[in-house]
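This section describes the prediction task in plain terms. A model, or a person checking by hand, is given the sequence of a single protein chain and must write out its three-dimensional structure as a string of tokens. No templates, partner chains or ligands are provided. The sample shown here is typical of the held-out split.
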Amino acid sequence: MIASLALLGRLLLASTPAPFCHSALTADPSSRTTGVGAFSDSLERLYRSGVTWPQFLESAQSRQEMWKGNYQVGAPEPEAVTRVDAVLGRWRLLVVAEDWCFDSANTIPYLARLVEAASNLELRIVNSKAGRWVMERHKTPDGRSATPTVVLLDEGYRDLGCFVERPAKLVAWGEANKGKLSDEEYLRQKTAWYRDDRGRETVREIVELLEAAAAGTFKTCGPADPRKADRRTGGLAMVRGGV
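The expected answer:
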């Protein structure tokens, strides 16, 4: 009976676009590190434990048509690829995502296509259970842990920026319209926004994030995420509570 109820719940999630792809899990206190070296080591272990995009797509059980359809139409604009290739070094995208998440299915396939087209960018995906402590460090503007959470890592697996849940333009649209529309109409228009955008805003934000990180400017998000350059070591210093 329990197994049947779990299966029914998964099927309902697969058929309905959720307004928020959030996690109710809290961060594991043992995962909270104070030194940037230990933090980078934890991110490296998590990244290496992740699956590749082809592995994730093959194993996805929910929203398969959405995942595959967005991937098929998700070729990035040549300018975006050129800008990524122009950034020196090797870079990695650590993605926390779930196959049932509506926002994940409308953002991550486009990033996968960007990674495939670029010469210096890699991607691995972990689920929200494994990546819950990363989600707790990188929250939405209204304080939620959400999927997808995308963390930009450099060659040393240092956290140099993040993208959480959905593009900023869609966030702004949602804030302006959420209270004016019924839930059904809100989801309809949100779906149309994603369909018309075809990942352009998501890719744009990631490209700008990469360029900013390479230039030494770090986009921060989350209550304990801010960092600043450490001039003494040339590395990063973790700053709790804000910059």
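For orientation: The beta strands are 91-96, 121-126, 149-153, 159-164, 227-230, 235-238.
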